[in-house]
Design goal:
Rossmann fold, 462 residues, alpha/beta, five-stranded parallel beta sheet, Helicase, Ruva Protein, domain 3, single chain, 3 domains
């Protein structure tokens, strides 16, 4: 039996829900008229699914959604509203909702949505709810994760994949943006078509137009024959533009026209070529700032950014570090069957305490090097070749003079201090925004600040 929590401040709606669920004996229903009451229930109980009204007076549905996912990242949420718009739907899914349904709706429409959610999460792994195994690790389309931040991204991938919307994936270098793009493609109706990636910063500017759109024979020096462009190869599939910020302004104009009309011409050609492609782009830069500085076209930005997925840096989701490290180790062991290696507890602590400026890519390279250099079947702390300058950010110089337990406690405390100071500064002292960016609730942030003795300028406007 599935436990369902329904939150709506209109008593008439709660009564309607009770009638709708009357004949569904496979659901255990809890109905509440207030968001705060719902959050208290989630703290003390497990629910498979929450139906949540978007527009409520005391605490809005969006606020309840964010706080609920902080308390229990495993809860699945369907937003309900009579005031819904496309923008509200997209925003709700960005914040972690799995689906969105507008009033009025029929019982069949509602239960179709509910059954779809439950089928999806019963047939694939997801973040475990509180009380499940601590060492649970998720595998989704070659994406390895345990953190609630990544679970929300996977939910967004599942939801947005069946559409034809352009998707912009933002995040630092090495965070796995192309893996997210490939997952969207594989879960889309275009999965039988090609996935064509191109790095906008890797192709010289004077050749990029020809690579993208193709060229006719004799159109420029060296064009000895007609050559189709990458867009033609991507027809009926997905075209992935990595590092889109590196695209020159003249090429941005031509890409915008192609997006608007789904057609283009070869360099030196007159014939219009029609293509059916979905565009997914990625960037490690702030495109909004580039638009303000007139280094990126605003109209193209809004075209590409129909739906944005922001991939968090690895240091903000330490729960993912060891599962990823173990995954890379397992892969290395399979490729080198004569050498089976695992991480020592001390090595794990070092990995968790490191800031990983190169994100998942740096972690993979580090594990590969440690595996190759390790002289036994256990990778020790000294086998992890972390840059000394970066270790000092978190590890005091006298750390090795302490006992293991005290050294471990000191490392974790220094990490917590630096981590919270970074996010408080980033969010200008706003506790609500800091809690959101850390994936924690406000109460936990306040507790850590008091525990660690952090002094900050309080700019919270709650």
């Amino acid at each position: 039996m599935k436990k369902v929590l329904i939150v709506d401040d209109e008593i008439e709606m709660l009564n309607s829900f009770q009638k709708l669920f009357k004949h569904r004996k496979d659901f255990d229903l809890t109905l509440v008229p207030d968001g705060r009451e719902a959050l208290n229930l989630i703290k003390d109980n497990f629910f498979d699914l929450m139906l949540l009204d978007l527009k409520m007076e005391r605490l809005s549905g969006m606020e309840v959604l964010e706080k609920a996912l902080t308390i229990d990242p495993g809860i699945k949420v369907i937003m309900i509203s009579g005031y819904g718009t496309i923008e509200a739907s997209v925003e709700a899914m960005r914040k972690g909702a799995f689906d969105f349904i507008e009033k009025p709706f029929t019982a069949r429409q509602l239960f179709d949505r509910i059954d779809k959610v439950l089928r999806t999460f019963s047939s694939s792994s997801s973040v475990p709810s509180r009380g499940e195994e601590e060492n649970f690790v998720n595998h989704f389309e070659n994406i390895i994760y345990r953190s609630p931040q990544m679970e929300r991204i996977i939910q967004m991938v599942r939801k947005i994949a069946p559409s034809n919307m352009c998707v912009l994936i933002s995040g630092g270098s090495g965070t796995g943006k192309e893996l997210i793009a490939r997952a969207i493609h594989r879960w889309s109706p275009r999965n039988s078509g090609p996935f064509v990636p191109v790095n906008c910063g890797a192709v010289p500017e004077h050749l990029f137009e020809s690579e993208l759109f193709g060229h006719e024979k004799g159109s420029f020096t060296g064009a000895e024959q007609t050559k189709p462009g990458l867009l033609e190869f991507a027809d009926k599939g997905t075209f992935f533009l990595d590092e889109i910020s590196e695209l020159s302004l003249p090429l941005q104009v031509k890409l915008l026209r192609m997006l608007e009309e789904q057609k283009f011409r070869h360099v030196g050609g007159q014939k219009e070529i029609h293509v059916d492609v979905r565009i997914i782009s990625a960037t490690n830069k702030n495109l909004r700032e580039m638009v303000e500085k007139e280094r990126f076209r605003e109209d193209l930005f809004f075209r590409l950014n129909a739906f944005e997925i922001e991939v968090p840096p690895l240091y903000t989701r330490p729960e993912d570090i060891i599962p990823l490290a173990n995954y890379f180790l397992k892969d290395l062991c399979q490729k080198n069957s004569n050498k089976v290696v695992e991480l020592s507890e001390e090595a794990k602590e070092i990995l968790i305490s490191y800031s990983w400026p190169g994100n998942v890519r740096e972690l993979k390279n580090m594990i590969t090097r440690a595996y190759m250099l390790c002289s036994s079947q256990i990778i020790q702390a000294e086998d992890i070749p972390l840059p000394q300058i970066n270790r000092k950010n978190f590890v005091s110089s006298n750390i090795f003079d302490l006992s293991y337990k005290h050294a471990k406690d000191k490392i974790l405390q220094e990490f917590e201090i630096e981590y919270l100071k970074y996010h408080l500064k980033k969010n200008q002292g706003n506790i609500s925004m800091t809690a959101k960016s850390c994936g924690l609730d406000r109460r936990t942030i306040h507790r850590l600040i008091n525990k660690l003795g952090i002094v900050y300028q309080d700019k919270d406007n709650d």
